[in-house]
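Hello,

Our lab assistant flagged a job as stuck in the queue for most of the afternoon. It eventually completed. Since we weren't sure the result was trustworthy after the delay, we are filing this so someone can double-check. Below is the sequence as submitted and the structure that was eventually returned. Let us know if re-running is recommended.
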Amino acid sequence: PTPRRQEEMREEMLVQIMTPDARERCSRIAMVKPEKARRVEDVVIQMARVGQIRGKVDEQQLIRILEQVGGPTEEKKSAKIVFNRRRYEDDEDDGLFDDDI
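-- returned structure --
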């Protein structure tokens, strides 16, 4: 099959094995992290192929799969804000708050 047809077959399988809510969550993830969404879909498809999935994967099951896929191997990125304050030579001794006056 052509790559396009393979992708269509993949989508058809995902529709069959995931609830609409789970598919929606996966598509939202794909907007931000397409490679992670693809890995999760691969896991879901593989689980279905080997008979680990009974019924459709719902949103809660998808969340558990996401935790496994993104677990300890994925680096946790935290936002870090660094303030670079500009220093001027005479900042500390500008005479504005001197009590000597």
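-- support follow-up --
The delay was a queue issue, not a problem with the job. The result is valid. The radius of gyration is 26 Å. The chain is about 55% helix and 0% strand.
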